Amino acid sequence: MNRVVAALERVTEWIMALMLAVMVALVFGNVVLRYIFNSGIVAAEEIARLMFVWLVFLGATLALRRNQHLGLDFLQARLPASVRRACAVVSHLLMLYALYLFVTGSWTQLLIGTQTYSTVLRFPMAFYAAAGFFPAIAMALTILANLWKILSGDRDAVVPGSAPQGVLVEH
C-alpha cells in the first residue's frame, strides 16, 4: 500500500510541475505577445487560472500527507503525552468535519458547474469545483488514516507537539 501511495505522490508531483510549466509559458507568452505584438492568447488566462486552482489543492493535499503544513505546536509540546494525544484526536475530528463541509459544498458547486461554462473555452465550470472535491476526499482519507493510527497507538502516528521519530529532544 505504501508503494502505491508513494507512486501516486510522484505522479501528483509531476502533474503539478507540468501545470506550473504550462502556466508560466502561457502567462509569459501572453505578456510578450501583448507588449511586443499587441495581441495575445485569449484562452491563456482561463487555462492558467484553472491550473492554479488545481495546483493549490494538489499541493495542499501533498503537504498534508507529508505533515508539512505550517503549524504551531509549542503549547502542545509542553503537554503530557496523553493530553497531546487527546488534542490530536479532537483536532482530527474537527478537520474531518471541516472537510465534510468542504466536500459537500464542492459537490454542490460541481453539480451547478456542469450547467455553466467558462467564457472563452466553454469548458464546464465544474472543473474548478472538482479541484476542491477530489483533493478534499484525499485529505479526509489521510486524516482518517492518521486518526486510526493515533487511536490504535501506532508509533507512526503523527501527534502535534511530539518529537518526530529519530529526533532527540533536549530539555
UniProtKB/TrEMBL annotation:
<protein>
    <recommendedName>
        <fullName>TRAP transporter small permease protein</fullName>
    </recommendedName>
</protein>
<feature type="domain" description="Tripartite ATP-independent periplasmic transporters DctQ component">
    <location>
        <begin position="23"/>
        <end position="151"/>
    </location>
</feature>
<keyword id="KW-0812">Transmembrane</keyword>
<comment type="subunit">
    <text>The complex comprises the extracytoplasmic solute receptor protein and the two transmembrane proteins.</text>
</comment>
<keyword id="KW-1003">Cell membrane</keyword>
<feature type="transmembrane region" description="Helical">
    <location>
        <begin position="86"/>
        <end position="107"/>
    </location>
</feature>
<dbReference type="InterPro" id="IPR007387">
    <property type="entry name" value="TRAP_DctQ"/>
</dbReference>
<keyword id="KW-1133">Transmembrane helix</keyword>
<dbReference type="InterPro" id="IPR055348">
    <property type="entry name" value="DctQ"/>
</dbReference>
<keyword id="KW-0813">Transport</keyword>
<dbReference type="Pfam" id="PF04290">
    <property type="entry name" value="DctQ"/>
</dbReference>
<keyword id="KW-0997">Cell inner membrane</keyword>
<feature type="transmembrane region" description="Helical">
    <location>
        <begin position="47"/>
        <end position="65"/>
    </location>
</feature>
<comment type="function">
    <text>Part of the tripartite ATP-independent periplasmic (TRAP) transport system.</text>
</comment>
<comment type="similarity">
    <text>Belongs to the TRAP transporter small permease family.</text>
</comment>
<feature type="transmembrane region" description="Helical">
    <location>
        <begin position="127"/>
        <end position="148"/>
    </location>
</feature>
<keyword id="KW-0472">Membrane</keyword>
<feature type="transmembrane region" description="Helical">
    <location>
        <begin position="12"/>
        <end position="35"/>
    </location>
</feature>
